[in-house]
User: What shape does this take?
Amino acid sequence: MQGSEFMLAGMFVVMAVSNVLAMKRAFGGKDNKEISDTHPTYLSPDGKTFAVWGMIYTMELVMVIAQLFPSDTTEEIFARKCPITGLDVRERLMLAFALNAFWLPVFNNEFYLGAFVVIIGYLTFLISAYTDLAPTTLPGVMQVILFSVGVSLNTSWVLVATFVNFVLYAGELGWKTNSVAGNVPAACGIVAFVGYLGCVQAFMGYDFAWAFVAAWACMGIKRMQIIPEQTRFPVKALSSTLANCAQYTAFAVILAMGAAVVKMAIA
Assistant: This one.
């Protein structure tokens, strides 16, 4: 699509503005912190964990700027089409950014089912774009840094956020333990799945950005479970089992990252 590089840049701006407006409660309702504090789930990480968004948006800004100055290699990458939808990489990223922007007012106004549907679409387009931007599909380290890292970070984080959104909505339907949405066994299972994907992405796909976010999210869940703070999570519901599961899962992902580095060094 002619001019699509500028359309992608414009949609990134829309997404960024939507995030600023959400933080200022311009959409009404509650901000994300208020919802997290008033609707705890067994998958919720602590507040520090959300700092990952700064890294995500920074690296996606790098990608958006870099693709404004296309080369033959860049155009070959972004012209790759999804075999299902026929959309190229830029078009899929535009849809992902648009759904991110839309998700915020829906979630802030506590329409949790609608928010879950939107975030599923958001994750779907991220995964679709990621398949053409994964490190192993790109010709060199520079292209990985410019085009892959931001999308990898985003996709890995939104995978976790999608699970949290699901458990939160299920909690609204009555799935609660000790006034917390979900339960410890389910949370441990999801943490293990996120960690497994992080290990695979690190060791098989050399995607250290994806793996980093998986480990980061697990450590955030661990901190939520070991630091008592009644205003954000019922103290009586804290689980050392979940904390240990999250911590060991994070360690496993970090170990896989180290093993991938050794594998690359001896290859």
